[in-house]
Write a structure and sequence with these properties.
By secondary structure, the protein is of the alpha+beta class. 33% of the residues lie in helices and 27% in strands. The chain has a five-stranded antiparallel β-sheet. A four-stranded antiparallel β-sheet has the order 4-7-5-6. Strand 9 and strand 10 form a beta hairpin. Helix 2 crosses helix 11 and helix 3 packs across helix 5.
Length: 299
């Protein structure tokens, strides 16, 4: 059975910095002889039945294909809900890529960007704001969700009362869901670092299969050329005994001291792929589908 790629229009719109993004998917799928569809719907505004009925017919009737989904977090959550008892491929888990899950499982030679961290619930963090300076001894710190479900956007904050007020405002304003951050939401706090550039790599079956630069000087800057040092760190992650998923993305940062660190891991089906080689990604998923149908991997 061959895969049928079903991509949310969100993924296409997200990459509007490059009009060739859509063509890169279609050309890769066409060259490799697999189907490709774009679905345009808002999971939050669509009932489960409407959402299901808008999926391609080949997906709903299993006409000799394996549906492969790429899209937003909300889109992937909806897919899991409406197709819970049906076979499909989607690299999306809401817990395996929590920082608190993979940080302690990686070997000590993996250079984590936020290696000097502690984790507190959102409410406890606000109630004990003075603790931040007492622990880290820094005037500016970085705070992000422990989860990779984007409950709010990570950022740098002063450790004084002004920083606390700014964090409250920004964490609720930039959470992407339009709802207040929950009191028990786990937050990771670390010292602030100066990032020069960022790279994203796609890891499949313990191998780095493609990657690109996506950020420089805090601005979107997509390039296909990759610094060897960044790729080397990603390859170290790929070779770790512990792997959170069979396929995921790994972000690597270049710091102002010319070192390279692991920023975070993200789900393979929800990450922006920027200028990555889509053909290599499609090839990896064809391989996965072949093994998936044989039961060698858990889908």
């Amino acid at each position: 059975m061959k895969p049928h790629f079903i991509i949310s229009s969100y993924m296409i719109d997200k990459e509007d910095y490059d009009p060739s993004y859509y063509n890169s998917w279609t050309s890769a799928c066409k060259e490799l002889g697999v189907e490709f569809s774009v679905v345009d719907m808002s999971p939050s505004e669509t009932s489960d039945e409407e959402f299901y009925n808008k999926l391609p017919l080949s997906c709903r009737l299993r006409l000799g294909v394996i549906p492969v989904f790429f899209g937003s977090i909300e889109y992937c959550r909806k897919i899991k809900k409406v197709l819970k008892n049906k076979p499909y491929v989607m690299f999306f888990d809401e817990n395996k890529l929590d920082c608190s899950n993979y940080y302690p499982k990686f070997s000590s030679d993996i250079p984590l960007l936020n290696n000097d961290y502690f984790i507190l619930e959102y409410k406890n963090l606000l109630e004990n704001w003075d603790l931040i300076y007492n622990v880290l001894k820094k005037d500016i710190v970085f705070i992000r969700p422990n989860s990779n479900m984007k409950q709010f956007t990570g950022g740098n904050y002063l450790t004084n009362d002004t920083g606390k007020r700014t964090f409250i405002e920004m964490s609720n304003k930039l959470n992407g869901w339009g709802i207040p951050v929950k009191d028990k939401e786990l937050c990771l706090v670390s010292s602030s670092k100066k990032i020069i550039s960022e790279y994203r790599f796609y890891i499949y079956d313990k191998k780095v299969i493609t990657g690109c630069q996506y950020n420089r000087d805090l601005a979107l800057d997509v390039r296909t050329d990759i610094l060897d040092k960044a790729k080397t760190i990603a390859e170290m992650v790929a070779k770790q005994e512990y792997q959170p998923e069979i396929a995921y993305t790994c972000d690597i940062a270049e710091l102002d001291d010319e070192t390279f660190k692991v920023v975070e891991l993200n789900n393979g089906s929800t990450s922006g792929l920027y200028a990555m080689d889509k053909k290599k990604i499609v090839e990896s998923i064809i391989d996965y589908c072949h093994n998936y149908m044989k039961g060698e991997f858990n889908g």
